[in-house]
């Protein structure tokens, strides 16, 4: 093995960023049909670096939990801004029917199923199993870029692309109540016993407070603050400011951070607020080219975070983050990705009249990734779980994310290309 220096690490990471910039355009020009996506290349690049070089600092998401939480948090909220800006379809009960089904049925079914698998097959205590289900349920807005709609105004809103984009934009925030339930139950259990509260305590006071605060108030606050900030910013930019006097980069970053920070200050869900703010802002002068400029900046910034997170995940895998898993852990990961999400999605979309190919694509392409890492880091940072449980959860989440990166990275473009060009 060779010694890894800081300079070598920067060079490898820089190579990944350059590849993201050059390889897609080069592939199109040369007519290459590469089976590798940028996330796949970064994942295996990280694994290769971890195996080839020694003296790399150990990636420990338990001890470095706050750093992991903050980095993945930024990646997710930037992606949510991009998702909100590029949706052309107006919000409506019927026009967003597939989204509502995915949020109200698919996500809770995935939470219950994975929590059950973790409890029965892995022996996870109840609150830890619930946390596992909650962190893995959302479709990731960062890694799902390959199956989402195109930039604003490009009229590529086929039903599968629209459903997966809008689902990824909203279910990150709507999974948070279940994370908070696991946290509250764990903290209450520790208060009762004085020991790590992996089993959790789901007493009526815990459930009532969770329902009132974490479900009703925080969702309502996230929706309202997102709408308000999006409206005010749209009015300021398109009604007051000179059209050419606003910097797209500063505006995109400011919209993301301001909506998230202010909403978190009033104890609302910032993830919901960021997506709704971007969606509302897009409704002002919805056909203006400025929206494309904003989206372009967000997309490039988001890709930098994606490359870094996936690359480091590969290093962590090479360093043995999957060690706590036995055969049952691998089986749970496979069952979740190959059966639970596809079946839950297929069932939820029944009755919408979608062609079978589109229905299958929406059901099967629920990509897991950076958002799940954020939720797990947040949950373990805010609840007294045991170290052993935390490491087992990280092992399973890293495995599911890695499998999802590879399987969806290879299969998603082929599946989407086979669908008929039916645009709403």
Characterise this structure.
The chain has 424 residues and is mostly helical. It has a single domain (37-50, 61-319, 329-418), classed as Up-down Bundle (Na+/H+ antiporter like fold), CATH 1.20.1530.20. It has 15 helices and 2 strands. A two-stranded parallel ribbon has the order 1-2. α1 packs across α11 (290-318). The longest helix has 37 residues, at 204-240. The chain is globular, with a radius of gyration of 21 Å. It starts with a strand and ends in a 6-residue tail after the last helix. The mean pLDDT is 84.
Give me the CATH fold name.
Na+/H+ antiporter like fold
Radius of gyration: 21 Å
Oligomer: single chain
Shape, per Cα inertia axes: globular
Could you state the order of secondary-structure elements as H and E?
Answer: EHHEHHHHHHHHHHHHH
User: Which structural class best describes the helix and strand composition?
Assistant: mainly alpha
Got a strand count?
2
Report the CATH architecture. Up-down Bundle
Strand % is under 5%
What is the strand arrangement across the widest sheet? 1-2
Overall pLDDT level? 84
Using brief descriptors, characterize the structure shown.
1% strand; 424 residues; mainly alpha; 2 strands; two-stranded parallel sheet; Na+/H+ antiporter like fold
Task: Summarize the topology.
Elements: E1 2-3, H1 6-30, H2 38-52, E2 53-54, H3 65-86, H4 97-121, H5 126-136, H6 159-174, H7 176-193, H8 204-240, H9 248-265, H10 270-283, H11 290-318, H12 327-348, H13 356-364, H14 370-382, H15 387-418
Parallel strand pairs: 1-2
Helix pairs in contact: 1-2, 1-11, 2-11, 3-6, 3-9, 3-10, 3-11, 3-14, 4-5, 4-6, 4-12, 5-7, 5-14, 5-15, 6-10, 6-13, 7-8, 7-14, 8-9, 8-10, 9-10, 9-11, 12-13, 12-15, 14-15
């Amino acid at each position: 093995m060779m010694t890894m220096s800081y300079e070598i690490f920067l060079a490898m990471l820089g190579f990944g960023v350059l590849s993201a910039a050059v390889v897609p355009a080069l592939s199109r020009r040369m007519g290459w049909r590469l089976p590798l996506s940028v996330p796949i290349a970064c994942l295996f690049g990280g694994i290769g670096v971890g195996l080839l070089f020694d003296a790399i600092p150990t990636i420990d998401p338990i001890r470095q939990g706050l750093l992991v939480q903050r980095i993945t948090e930024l990646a997710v909220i930037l992606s949510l801004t991009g998702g909100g800006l590029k949706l052309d379809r107006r919000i409506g009960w019927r026009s967003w029917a597939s989204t509502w089904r995915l949020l109200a049925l698919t996500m809770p079914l995935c939470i219950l199923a994975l929590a059950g698998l973790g409890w029965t097959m892995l022996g996870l205590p109840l609150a830890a199993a619930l946390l596992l289900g909650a962190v893995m349920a959302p479709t990731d807005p960062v890694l799902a870029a390959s199956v989402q709609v195109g930039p604003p105004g490009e009229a590529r809103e086929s039903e599968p692309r629209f459903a997966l984009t809008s689902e990824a934009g909203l279910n990150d925030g709507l999974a948070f109540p279940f994370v908070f339930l696991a946290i509250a139950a764990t903290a209450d259990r520790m208060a009762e016993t004085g020991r790590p509260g992996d089993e959790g305590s789901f007493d009526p006071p815990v459930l009532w407070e969770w329902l009132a605060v974490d479900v009703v108030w925080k969702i309502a606050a996230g929706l309202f603050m997102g709408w308000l900030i999006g409206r005010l910013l749209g009015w300021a930019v398109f009604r007051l400011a000179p059209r050419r006097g606003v910097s797209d980069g500063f505006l995109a970053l400011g919209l993301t951070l301001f909506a998230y920070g202010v909403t978190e200050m009033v104890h609302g869900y910032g993830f919901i607020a960021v997506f709704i703010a971007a969606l509302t802002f897009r409704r002002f002068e919805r056909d203006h080219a400025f929206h494309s400029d904003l989206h372009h900046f967000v997309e490039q910034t988001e890709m930098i975070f994606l490359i870094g997170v996936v690359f480091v995940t590969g290093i962590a895998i090479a360093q043995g983050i999957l060690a706590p898993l036995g055969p049952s852990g691998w089986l749970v990961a496979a069952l979740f990705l190959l059966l639970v999400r596809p079946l839950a999605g297929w069932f939820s979309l029944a009755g919408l009249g979608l062609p079978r190919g589109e229905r299958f694509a929406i059901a099967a392409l629920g990509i897991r990734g950076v958002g799940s890492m954020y939720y797990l880091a947040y949950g373990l940072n805010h609840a007294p779980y045991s170290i052993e449980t935390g490491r087992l959860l990280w092992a399973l989440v890293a495995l599911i994310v890695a499998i999802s990166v590879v399987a969806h990275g290879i299969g998603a473009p082929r599946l989407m290309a086979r669908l008929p060009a039916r645009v709403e």
